[in-house]
Amino acid sequence: MKRRAVIKNIGLLSISGGVAGALAPTAGRTETQPGKRDLFKELGVTPVINAGVTMTFLSGSLMLPEVMEAINSTAHDFANMYELQDKVGAKIAEMLHCEAAMVTSGAACAMVLGTAAAITGKNPEKIKMIPNLPGPRVEVIMQKTHRYLFDQAITTTGARIVEVEGPDEMDKAFNTNTVMTLYFNAAEKSSVTREEFVALSKKHNVPSFMDAAADVPPVENLFAYQKIGFDLVTFSGGKMIRGPQSAGLLFGRKDLIEAAKLNHSPHEAPIGRPMKVNKEEMFGMYAALKTYLERDHEKEWQDWLNRIKQIKLTVETVPGVTGETHIESGPANAFPSLDLNWDEQCVKISPGEVQAALKNGTPSIVANVGRTQDGKPRLRVGVVLLKPEHVAIVAKRVRDILKKAG
Ligand SMILES: *Cc1c(COP(=O)(O)O)cnc(C)c1O
Predict the structure, then answer these.
(1) For a substitution probing ligand 1, which of 150, 185, 233, 276 has the most ligand atoms within 8 Å of its CB?
(2) How far, in Å, is the centroid of ligand 1 from the Cα of 147?
(3) Is the separation of the CB atoms in 318 and 402 below 8 Å?
(4) Residues 341-384: pLDDT tens digits?
(5) Is 210 in the pocket of ligand 1 (CB under 6 A)?
């Protein structure tokens, strides 16, 4: 209801502001009534239409109206942060069918805190010393093909990553220094299945951690990994869950979540103190998750397909241009977008050049260049992060650029 009311409002404003006003350098933002402060303008920051996927450098996703409401309605009172983290965590754990949960400052923070928890438990001396613990370096086991940029969050705690290939090598890698195992859910190749990974971790009594940061939709993934038996799971808050960009979820085993909290703000000095989550982000993350779980996901998927159809119809008016729906196989970014093909003999522009023209135009539109199976580049127009009024803007801009080159 509320969301619909907001959308309706935006529609009205764009009429009263005039079409030109709506399209001017405000990325189709239509909330620029006279007298209203426009901080983008005030600071000269270029508003961007995101016709791609959630990207950290592009500010993640847009917070839902329910999240903004949670932030605004809670900003005017103080709260005890220990109590707030506990109560929000209990509610999130209930929603996600697991023992315990907490709000972190993103999935990368959840990785630091989860590893720290596995290292220190609730031992105050260890919590004080990490990442400078005496003795041999502790170890986290990962599959060789799962190594990725984000595993620096693991070694931030002082841990060393031990690479394995296949279940046998994994089995033999456990020793008294092993504190955790880490599974990168969206890795392209795995030599140990999720089930084997959990079973081996349990056999050696070592907590297993699942990084599924970007892995909704489908919504079912929010429940899948604790069900398999992972002890800790993280998802980003600021990707498709559409909470605050700087928030994330860490959930799973109660003793580990308790230990993770001891390594985090509002405690004064631990490793997680520089990764503070504020009160409004905690309320906002709770509201985002609740809204995400309650959404009609089938309808949302259909809306995305309808957007693709609308853009495709407009763009295909340029002779020689055809579009097709591309659905990323996942688990990350598993949603539909529009791939565009054209014969560069007739339409004399490359996908990369269209991408640059979109970015450098007004409003600035960020799209991606994907690749076909034989490695040919293609313009990939994302629809899931567009506001309703962006769809026609994006369609016309792509059409105009291609038409000019035709
Ligand atoms: C985005 C991402 C992260 C980092 O998440 P933040 O919420 O931005 O901290 C970690 N791992 C994977 C696989 C990601 O996609």
Answers:
(1) 150
(2) 14
(3) yes
(4) 999 999 999 999 999 999 999 999 999 999 888 889 999 999 99
(5) no
Query: What pTM does this model have?
Result: 0.91
